[in-house]
Each structure stands twice: as structure tokens, then as C-alpha cells.
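Standup, Tuesday
Yesterday: got the pipeline producing C-alpha cells again.
Today: sanity-check two examples.
Blockers: none.

Example 1:
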Amino acid sequence: MKRILPVVFLSGLSLATSIFAGENPVWPMPSPFPQSPSGVNSATFPVPRLDWVVRVKMNNDKASNAASGIQLVFDGDSITDGWQGAGKEIWAERYGKLGAFDFGISGDRTEHVLWRISQGQLEGLHPKLVAVMIGTNNMGANSVEQIAEGVKAIVNEYRTRCPDATILLQAIFPRGHLATDPARAKIRETNKILAGLADGKTVIFLDFGDKFLEADGALSPDVMPDFLHPNAKGYQIWADAIQPVIDRFFPQSR
């Protein structure tokens, strides 16, 4: 494995370098890379993260090769990406047999998910259920209304490109150790708007963030050691919270 990793890394670096240098990349890319115009809500304008174009390409290829079997899609940022890390055992147990695919990428904001979708992420996919949670990384740069608009744009894209799928829109998780953390209020206000996107049929909204909290509202380090990312216990709580929806679409899931 130690001899393979440098080859993989160099291959990815070569692809990224060819993109940055304007050479002929193996994956068609827009040139120049788009940037949010002045005055436009950056949370709704699709842009790529240049450091992760290789991963997007790999995910798209992997999904394309397995398209006919993908019935359950997860999308989001590092918290969703973590299903392949701290949550991998629970993922294998709960979702491995359901034709599940995880598109989550660490560090993503709403605009990055929109860009991924615009680059063929969902081409050929016909999932039954799409679990989306995104927006925590927008907290610093965008207002509550802008973040909600970005999430709405993602929901609309999934509804357009996967019209037969139901969207499970999950509230943004609480972050920060104490209930008084400034991010908490902003997250609550954003989630209030997100709840209004649901109709209970094509879009289902779930807010189970309180399951990660202690009685005084503190975020438990036993489930999120860095007060942002769940550990294995946190992913177990997450899986249990959404299981009733999973059962609705995959009756034989357990």
C-alpha cells in the first residue's frame, strides 16, 4: 500500500496540474473557472473548489459505473463525508445493502454542491431517496437567508434531475460546545427557513440536532469531540434518527 499511494497521489496531482496550467485535462472543465459576480449571493452561484476537482471526478466515475444500483444518495460536507470515516461501520451495516452512495466532500459549502451537480454528478442516477445536509460551512460568509437560498437551490436541482426521488432534507447540526455559541442561533434561524421547504412528500425535513445535546444545551464531546464532527457514537445517533424514513423507502433495510 505504501508503494501505491504515491502513484495515486502523483496521478491526481498531474490531473490537477494540467487543469491549473491550461493543458488538455482528461476531464472537460470550464475555462476560466467561474467566480461569483459582484452583488450575487455567493451561496447560490455554482463554483468549484479547485483543490478537490480530482475527487469530484473520481466520485462521478464511481457513481456512473454503479448508477443502476444506486437507490440511496447522501450529499453534503465533511459531516456527510464522515460516513466513510468514523461512521463507516454503521454505513456498512445500515446502508451498504441498499445501494447507497455518499457524495459528501469535506469543506463543501452550498455553492460547491451546486457545482458538483452541474458537472454530471447525478447523470444516469435514479435514487429513491436523497439525504441532504449542507450549510454549516456557509455560516461565516453568508447570511441566514443566503444559506437557506443555497440549500433551496440544491433541493431544486435534485428535484429536477432526480424527479422520482424524495429528498430527506436534514437540519444543519448544532456546532460549538455551549448553547451560547454564536453559531447556534444562526443555525436555528436557518433551520426554521429550511423546514418551510418541506411538503412531507417530495421533500421531508428532519431536525434531530437536539439528540446530540446535553440537558443544558451543550454539545456533548462524547458524540462530537471537536464540537462539529460526529464520532462513531454520533453517527449511530444520526442513523437511528433517520431510520424511520429509511424504513419507509426500504422496508427490508433491517
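Example 2:
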Amino acid sequence: MADTPSGTAIDAARLRAGHQLIDQGCIFNDPYAVPITGELKTHIRAWSSETPVREYYRYHVAVRSRVAEDRLAEAVAVGTRQAVILGAGLDTFSLRNPHADAGLRVYELDKQATQALKLDRITAAKLSVPASTSFTPADLEKQPLQEALRKAKVALDRPIFFVWLGVVTYLTETAIFDTLTAIAGIPGSEVVFDYGNPPEDYPSDRRTGLEKRIAEMQKRGEKWQGFFRPAALQQRLHSLGFSLSANMSPHDIYKRFRPNVRTPPVNDPGSHIMWAKV
């Protein structure tokens, strides 16, 4: 709903917090993840471990943040000084910004209701917003990215690192590729985003579960619709002007971050993390 905070942003915040409490932040350490939820630790633990699906996404949310922030650190090391978090939700990077002393400015873009909730949560948790951070309401289904960036006073003649996590699945293909086209038009820029295979790529037992979750999200008013196959997506990224791209598959994710858990087959469908550079 346009006039209410995103329920999935709240869910993702609980999962990040659950990773700190249940998994001791073994993949991604975030000291603000728990306080920004505004919820009791007992509730966070119970909710984020209630089902196998939530356990899976608890790790995925941690991994995608780790990958994005590792890539961002590499970009800062070679001179990038602007980071834009698209659909930031309750993500806390801008509050932690470990690169503030290097001059990294962080711009958060999200729907107004979700952003208002976040600012309330920041105040309630007695956290502070660094001078290096700014918030600008934006809805990429209704507003071109470049228009939102100009409103946020982002310098379009300098490289930008875009963090776009937990968002692509909820957007139309038109909005996704309009956004990627705009990013590709900013020299030296990079983007990290996550996405999933289309339902028809899954074996029948897993497909049934996925379709059930898609139906549940539809009822919540947050439709899952942005699905892609890795090879086709990388080819399209290159056609838009991205010179480099790298896809981290479920197999890659488990092999790197969860070596003690059964690694999925190489071509197993699931949640992917994509990095692309202009």
C-alpha cells in the first residue's frame, strides 16, 4: 500500500536482527539491527526462526547485505564517494557508515511511509543520523531514478554505488530496466541487487511452496513479479552498457558463506545476488 510502510521492509529488518541474535551475526554484523526493529528480542528470535523458509531468508538477508557492503568498501577504496540505497527500508548502513571519514555520502531513497517509519524507529532507538546521510522520498514505479537522484542532490557526473536489496522482486520489468538503464548512464557506477528465478524453473515440490508465498505476498499488497534467469539477465545488463557483471548463485552463496550446510547443485534455482559495473 502506498500510504503504509512496507511490510517486507519490516520483515527484512526482523531477519537481520534475528541473524544477530540467533546466528551471532556470523555472516553480517550489525549492531543497530535489533534496536531499529523496536521489538523485543524474544519476539524477534521466535519470528525469524518460526519456519524453515524464514531461516533460509534470515541467512539470505545477511548474505546480501554482506556482499553489498564488501563491494561498496572496494568501490570506496578506489574513489567512489556516493552511495545510494534504493528501497532502503530499515537498513542501517547509513547510520553505521564506516567510510564517513573517507567522505562517503549516503542517500536513502524509499517510499514516504516507509521512510517516515524508519525515522520514527531511529528516534525511538535513540540512534542518530550522521551528517553524511540524507533521506529522499521516492517510488521507482512512479518516478524515474534520475529525477529522484536530482531531488536528493546526488552528483550525476561522479560515480555512484547503488545498493538495491530486497526490491527487484516487487517491481515490474519496466521499472527494473528503466532503473538499470539510468544507472548504466552514470559513468563508473555500480549496483548490487538480489533476485530470484521464475517459478517454472523450480522442481514441482519447491515450486508449490514458492507459488504459495507469491499468493501470500499478493494478499499483502506486495506482489512478487520481478523474476529472471541469470544468463539472460547478465546478457541484458551488458546490452544496457554495464561492462562487468557477476552473479552469485545459491550454490555460490552456500559454498562461500554456509560451508557446513549441504551446498545446492550448481544450477539450483533460488535467490541470487548480482553485481554490475558500468
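Quick observation on example 2: The mean pLDDT is 95. The radius of gyration is 18 Å.
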